[in-house]
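Box 3.1 A note on notation
Throughout this textbook, protein chains are presented in two layers. The first layer is the amino acid sequence; the second is a token string describing backbone geometry. Keep the layers aligned when reading.
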Amino acid sequence: MPPAEETTIIRKQSFKPITTRKYPLGPHIVPLIINGQEKAIADFILVS
């Protein structure tokens, strides 16, 4: 992609229960890392 060109990327993450992983309820952050540099941060709250 040429410099300064914008695009939209959408990704879904499953949080379905599995026995080997526990997801703590409450606030979480997801950083966007491109070429090893943090470019943006999104936050969400995981409920039940």
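The two ends are 40 Å apart (CA to CA). The beta strands are 26-34, 37-46.
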